[in-house]
Amino acid sequence: MNEQAGLVAMHQIAGVGWHTIDKLRRAGWSPDQDLTPSIIDGLAGQQVSQKTVEYIRTQWTPAFIKKVTSELKDRGIAVLTPIDEKYPGLLKEIAQPPWVLYIKGDIELLSEPCLAVVGTRKSTPYGLRVTRILSEQITRAGWVLVSGMANGIDGEAHRSALKAEGKTIAVLGTGVDVMYPKNHRSLYEEIAAKGAVISEMPPGTQPAPGLFPQRNRIISGLSVGTVVVEAAGRSGSLITANFSIEQGREVFAVPGPITSPQSRGTLSLIQQGAKCVIEAEDIFEEFTYNLPCAKEKEITEDLAKVALSEQEREILRYIQTEPVQITTLMEKTAGKMTVGEVHQTLLSLEIKQEIAQLPGSYYIRK
């Protein structure tokens, strides 16, 4: 019997969780052997009921192991367990490393240096813009960006990494074959094709509130550090940050307006000692000993990315991280530009993807 196949099949028995497998291992069980009398006695000593033992024995059969292995192969789902050489070394160091990682995509990414970028689902335009800047710079420097594919900051981090032709890993709180949230179907498919989507939950597992905090320990566990862009006072992102602290990893936080509820969590992290991040170099300088060299870093000013006219530069002086109404722009540029020139310049900046128009004729930097 194959060790990996035996462990994966045990992991897919309904009701057998992390602690049950841990007790099996402590009792001397190896995934390539049957449940011997001595192992059963060992389980009894760890308060595992006879009913549970019998249930496992009836479910964990050669036929079931073969069925699980065949189904995963047919669905293009790879697996890694702690007994495999390619299992991420950093993940082995956490308190409860997943017994099984299910993977769709590039399995090799899990062995590369990773940084996590996470944040609130209820992101602000400021948070999304900062996420785009940092995520592009992180991946262009050669790091693999890890996040949770949630709405808001997480999704924007993945999209920005892909846009920069970088590498990214999405860690799900559902089965690796279950797209959640559903509006991220195209993002899920692109990550699976160009990066990796992973989960410790058996395929088919549907979303449930308790699964997402568990997933967060994997996001931080894969990464040498976690960057929190925006987070409310109570946020899943703060759970990820706390896991990073417990795991002895670096924690970074992006400051934001003290009036913004979405910045309360990050400002609190900074007060507690997380490193304040105002540019990507603040992150990179903590890891100079192993900074990847896959690509030359491209950390340049936004205005240097595309050729801008003097009028475009003038307009951009007044469009920053907070939305600005068009009437305000006209007041600021009065005497320098006509109303028609303002409209034409705004349209040009939108085409160049320097700004975005919001409802009510408000504009914001991208």
TrEMBL record:
<protein>
    <submittedName>
        <fullName>DNA-protecting protein DprA</fullName>
    </submittedName>
</protein>
<dbReference type="InterPro" id="IPR003488">
    <property type="entry name" value="DprA"/>
</dbReference>
<dbReference type="Pfam" id="PF17782">
    <property type="entry name" value="WHD_DprA"/>
</dbReference>
<feature type="domain" description="Smf/DprA SLOG">
    <location>
        <begin position="79"/>
        <end position="287"/>
    </location>
</feature>
<dbReference type="InterPro" id="IPR057666">
    <property type="entry name" value="DrpA_SLOG"/>
</dbReference>
<dbReference type="GO" id="GO:0009294">
    <property type="term" value="P:DNA-mediated transformation"/>
</dbReference>
<comment type="similarity">
    <text>Belongs to the DprA/Smf family.</text>
</comment>
<dbReference type="InterPro" id="IPR036388">
    <property type="entry name" value="WH-like_DNA-bd_sf"/>
</dbReference>
<feature type="domain" description="DprA winged helix">
    <location>
        <begin position="304"/>
        <end position="360"/>
    </location>
</feature>
<dbReference type="Pfam" id="PF02481">
    <property type="entry name" value="DNA_processg_A"/>
</dbReference>
<dbReference type="InterPro" id="IPR041614">
    <property type="entry name" value="DprA_WH"/>
</dbReference>
